[in-house]
Design goal:
Layout: H1 7-13, H2 28-33, E1 41-45, H3 54-63, E2 67-72, H4 77-85, E3 91-93, H5 98-109, H6 136-146, H7 151-158, H8 162-178, H9 186-195, H10 205-209
Parallel strand pairs: 1-2, 2-3
Protein name: Response regulator transcription factor
Keywords: DNA-binding, Transcription, Transcription regulation
GO molecular function: DNA binding
Length: about 220
């Protein structure tokens, strides 16, 4: 379900990519009033004409049982922050090729959180915080997992069992929560890793926006 002006493109081009267009709605109210289970994923435009807040819209859609992919030009980082903080599973820029947006829609439909390291800068980093006191092995695990590797891939690189990786991630999240810095999503784990100096900060979002969909500078 799209809430923006690209519905025609999705209707015509989405099926070969495994995406079926269900319809559009001008507001979240209109979608929710249409009934339940209208679609699997809402590609939520973060600037709707009714002036509603992206965070409120995201939270309402998730409460109604929908998965949310934020869809935006990317110039308003506060809007991206609101959507991610309220449960959006990823962000797709309107400047991206349609094939990339289709891929993200499929992944979100499957329940996957899309790790947009460049977009993680939209969530504020704490400038003063209580250290989580991670062990060296926990730091190594976090550095791999938070930057995109799956649990099995982390296990292979650390030469440990996948179950041990899972246990480490649980422990890492518990330590951050105890320090008052919750990290309940993979994007938040990445941000905590940046704050701790475990991984370098990402490329600023505005640099990405200055590039064309083909990756050539504009």
């Amino acid at each position: 379900m799209l809430m923006n002006g690209m519905e025609v493109s999705l209707h015509r081009e989405g099926k070969p990519f495994g995406v079926t267009y269900a319809g559009k709605a001008p507001t979240v109210d209109a979608l929710l009033n249409a009934g339940r289970n209208v679609c699997d994923v809402v590609a939520l435009d973060l600037q709707l004409a009714d002036g509603s807040r992206p965070g409120d819209n995201t939270a309402r859609l998730i409460s109604a049982g929908y998965k949310v992919l934020a869809f935006t030009v990317g110039t308003n980082q506060a809007h991206i922050h609101e959507a991610l903080a309220n449960g959006a599973l990823g962000v797709s820029l309107k400047t991206e090729p349609l094939a990339e947006t289709f891929s993200k829609l499929r992944r979100v439909a499957a329940g996957e959180t899309i790790d947009e390291i460049q977009l993680a800068t939209a969530i504020e980093l704490d400038t003063e915080f209580v250290e989580a006191n991670l062990s060296e092995r926990e730091k190594e695990c976090l550095a791999l997992y938070a930057t995109g590797f799956g649990q099995d891939q982390v296990a292979l690189r650390m030469n440990i069992a996948s179950s041990t990786v899972k246990t480490n991630i649980v422990r890492i999240r518990e330590k951050f929560a105890a320090a008052g810095r919750p990290a309940d999503t993979k994007i938040k784990l990445y941000i905590r890793a940046v704050e701790e100096g475990i991984v370098p900060p990402p490329q600023p979002l505005n640099k990405r926006l200055r590039r064309s969909p083909k990756g050539t500078a504009q």
